[in-house]
């Protein structure tokens, strides 16, 4: 079969022109055959267009509306080209105003483009009724929606054409149920109940489609606006989890200390400063952490000052650290108490390979409750044979480094979590059914 | 991968890299001691005890 000789361009949309009986202006019908009422764009009068003639229904309103999206503007949303044919300005009894644009496509019918406080939603009228699950939830296609708003909505301004007999002042009872990204809206009057599912739209999509001017950040968020951090938290948890698992694995492999030397040193009972040398100690790793642990076995109510100098035999470079072991005990009105530790554990960072000597300078001290120096021998009694035991070892891992890395990896995720909770709190606080407002008799 | 996840992954890699680098050099901001500015022969033990003179294998 031969194809047709040439493909003709798609037919231009049928636009009919009517003359406004009030002002004489030309009113265009972009959905002729479907449109019932038209709001004149010049004088604001509402006309009946059902029989092809423009009959005046309501004479000019007090003020004209100037929609941000001019009627007749076409834009593509969800891969369908829509034409804005009608505009409503609505409010809750004059407060909390929002804009609704009626979109039309001859193959897909009508949709709503709703602008509330700068945030956009794409509304599709439902031909089925959502199922009431509980007092506060409705279900549509197996998905639950939680109640959010309840009130009245009235029409304040009308421009363009509509598929029903719209009128300024028309009021309906409204109810909204939400889940992230979607809002289920019910509008009811004496004659009918209609349901619409509104999908939240990123502003960039509406800017790209209809050329609207970007608005400032919508805050507090729209009732159904998804948290910008909510979806990321799951991904972030996976990324952070992998990083933390790697950190834990590496830490397990690198943990531990290899002890190289140990020596017991006597403590002078007269409290003078002493010095001792431990070594030589051969450090084999190119770089390492050197750990010096000193234990004072009989220490009670006193302390030992400790200064360490790790000296590289090759170049006399000093790696220095200091510490103290101190322990006290006593009895007060609460009973016996102890404080401090008989151990001192210090680390020297970044020590290169080589042969080292460790010089330990130490001094035993006794604590006097009566401000008298050494009223008795205490732990430094000669019969106690006071001594310190110094151990030297090497390793690589610091617990502090591990904790710091843990916190740094987790920090961005926790920031995301905090921002998400802040967003959700601000969003939910707008609800007529927020916990704080539950005592106001909403139900 | 979205930008936010990419940046977080990059951040995690940087933190892990720094952690490994610190482990390789045995370094930590939490270490009690480290390299002194002076050598044992010329400046004592860095203020910890007041030693002076040369120390090392020669006098062992």
TrEMBL record, chain A:
Keywords: Membrane, Transmembrane, Transmembrane helix
Transmembrane segments: 402-421
Domain DUF4178: 71-202
Highest rank taxon of the organism: Bacteria
Keyword Transmembrane helix: yes
Name of this protein: DUF4178 domain-containing protein
TrEMBL record, chain B:
Domain of life where this protein originates: Bacteria
Keywords: Membrane, Transmembrane, Transmembrane helix
Keyword Transmembrane helix: yes
TM annotation in the entry: 6-27
Name assigned to this protein: Uncharacterized protein
């Amino acid at each position: 079969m031969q194809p047709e000789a040439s493909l003709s361009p798609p037919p231009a949309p049928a636009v009919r022109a009517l003359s406004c009986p009030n002002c004489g202006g030309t009113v265009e019908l972009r959905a002729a055959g479907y449109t019932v009422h038209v709001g004149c764009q010049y004088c604001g009068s509402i006309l009946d267009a059902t029989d092809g003639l423009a009959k005046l229904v309501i004479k000019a309103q007090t003020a004209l509306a100037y929609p941000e999206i001019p009627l007749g503007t076409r834009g593509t949303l969800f891969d369908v080209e829509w034409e804005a044919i009608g505009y409503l300005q609505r409010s809750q009894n004059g407060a909390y105003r929002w804009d609704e644009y009626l979109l039309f496509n001859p193959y897909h019918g009508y949709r709503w483009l709703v602008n509330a406080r700068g945030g956009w939603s794409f509304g599709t009228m439902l031909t089925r009724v959502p199922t009431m699950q509980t007092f506060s939830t409705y279900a549509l296609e197996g998905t639950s929606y939680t109640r959010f708003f309840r009130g009245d909505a009235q029409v304040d301004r009308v421009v363009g054409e509509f598929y029903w007999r719209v009128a300024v002042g028309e009021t309906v009872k409204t109810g909204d149920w939400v889940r992230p990204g979607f809002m289920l809206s019910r509008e009811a009057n004496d004659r009918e109940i209609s349901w619409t599912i509104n999908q939240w739209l990123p502003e960039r999509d509406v800017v790209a489609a209809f050329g609207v001017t970007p608005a400032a950040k919508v805050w507090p968020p729209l009732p159904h606006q998804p948290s910008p951090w909510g979806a990321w938290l799951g991904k972030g948890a996976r990324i952070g989890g992998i990083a933390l698992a790697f950190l834990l694995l590496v830490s397990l492999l690198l943990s531990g200390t290899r002890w190289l030397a140990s020596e017991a040193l006597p403590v002078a009972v007269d409290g003078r400063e002493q010095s001792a040398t431990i070594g030589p100690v051969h450090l084999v790793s190119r770089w390492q952490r050197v750990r010096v642990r000193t234990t004072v076995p009989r220490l009670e109510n006193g302390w030992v000052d400790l200064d360490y100098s790790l000296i590289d035999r090759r170049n006399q470079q000093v790696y220095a650290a200091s510490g103290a072991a101190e322990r006290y005990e006593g009895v007060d009105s609460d009973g016996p108490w102890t404080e401090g530790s008989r151990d001192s554990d210090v680390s020297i960072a970044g020590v290169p390979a080589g042969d080292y000597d460790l010089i330990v300078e130490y001094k035993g001290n006794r604590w006097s409750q009566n401000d008298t120096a050494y009223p008795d021998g205490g732990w430094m009694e000669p019969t106690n044979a006071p001594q310190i035991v110094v151990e030297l070892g090497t390793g690589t891992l610091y617990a502090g480094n591990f904790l710091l890395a843990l916190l740094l990896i987790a920090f961005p995720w926790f920031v995301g979590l905090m921002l998400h909770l802040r967003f959700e709190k601000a969003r939910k606080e707008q609800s007529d059914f927020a916990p704080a407002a539950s005592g106001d008799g909403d139900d | 991968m979205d930008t936010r996840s990419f940046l977080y992954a990059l951040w995690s890699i940087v933190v892990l890299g720094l952690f490994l680098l610190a482990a390789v050099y045995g370094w930590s901001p939490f270490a009690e001691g480290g390299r002194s500015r002076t050598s044992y022969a010329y400046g004592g033990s860095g203020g910890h005890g007041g030693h002076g003179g040369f120390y090392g294998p020669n006098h062992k």
